[in-house]
Every structure is written in C-alpha cells, then in structure tokens.
Design brief:
single chain, 85 residues, alpha+beta, two-stranded antiparallel ribbon, 2 helices, 6 strands, 13% helix
Amino acid sequence: MSDDWRVTNQEKYLTGVTLTRKAWRQTRQGCDHDHCEFCSAKFGGPDLQDALREGWTTDDEYRWICDPCFGDFRERFDWRTRTDT
C-alpha cells in the first residue's frame, strides 16, 4: 500500500498513536466538522446531512480517522486502541 493516494506524510504524526472510537462532537469554537486524515470523509454533528457521526480519534480529538481507513492503515501505522470511557 505504499502507493496509496491517501497516504501523504501522516507517518510524521500518526505512527504509534492511541486512538479511541468516539462519537464526533464539536471541540473547537467555530469548527462544525472535521475530516478523515486519509480520505477526507467529513465528520460532524446531526446538522451536517452527509457527515459521519463517529470514528477513531486521537486523545485531543484533533485528528479523525474513518472506519475504512482505520481498517486499511491500522497495522501500517501501528495504532493502539482504547474504548471510550
């Protein structure tokens, strides 16, 4: 998968991180959505009609990854996971 169009230097900030599966929520004022770090799928709340409602995120909820990209890149990026408590 080294030639996958979705990989654009994410190794620098996503290798070995711990991800948690969560429902998306607004965490930054003025930002009503986020995008998957790989395919740019949109995450958002119920006001955004075609947005994903949940996915995998970093502890600070700044980086989001959709389920298909999580499955495709989990081993390559050596992600650890935890459940949301």
